[in-house]
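Hello forum,

I keep getting stuck at the same step: I have a sequence, I want structure tokens, and every attempt I make locally crashes halfway through. Rather than fight my setup again tonight, could one of you with a working pipeline run this one for me? It's a single chain of 264 residues.
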Amino acid sequence: MISEFAFYLATGATAGMLSGLFGVGGGLIIVPVLSFLFASHGFPAAHIMHMALATSLATIAFTSISSAHAHHLRGSVNIPIALRITPGIMLGSLLGALLASQIDTTWLKGVFVVFIFYVGTQMLLEFTPSPSGRNPGTILIQCAGTLIGAFSSLVGIGGGTLSVPFLIYCSYPVREAVGTSSAIGLPIAVFSTAGYIMAGQGIHGLPQFSFGFVYLPALGSIVLASVVTAPFGAWLAHRLPVATLKRLFALLLYGIGAKMALSL
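Reply #2:
Ran it on my machine without issues. Output:
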């Protein structure tokens, strides 16, 4: 049991530091690591990815609060656009989690593998969409929020990888796009987690201390460690060659994606 908690603490510490250093969601690290750990602990094979995704999103529900607050203090959260996109985010996140719970864990792993290769490539190429110069209407905002929420539920992330490019395309400044994305990461995580908790009720064979598909020992350990190390990662971001480190992190994502692909 002690070694199990040590692995979860290490996962949280790593995810928190990388999140602070690169501004990426911890789910990119938490989901694959938990999938490997849960498999090694003998958790039900049919629900390993469901539990990894749910637990990752539950951690984001806690850590996104401090992130959104920090961006708000710096004036980088566009509250009107966050309020406009949140209803779609809430709907998409909840429906996405309920849908994911019905998808075979192997297919979910395949979706995550494709996504992690996409993120790695995006980081290597430093791709950023060009602003369109158009102010998005309510229908576009709601549709985008629903899609961002649904896909975030499927891959266990806070949505920044999707919402930041969308907001930049809608001509919001990069700093504002990042800050607003951190704010809408909270409803993504909360409603996705709620969906996974509801879907996991009554599932037989889940390990002790599971709340739906959320595994509470991993949740507590990861949150505790990531909250401590995220500020350290942000501190390092101002003192290390982040561009070079980002390329190395992209290669790490390729390695993680390849290992997960081989386990399919």
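Residues 2-262 form one domain. If your local run keeps crashing, start a new thread with the error log.
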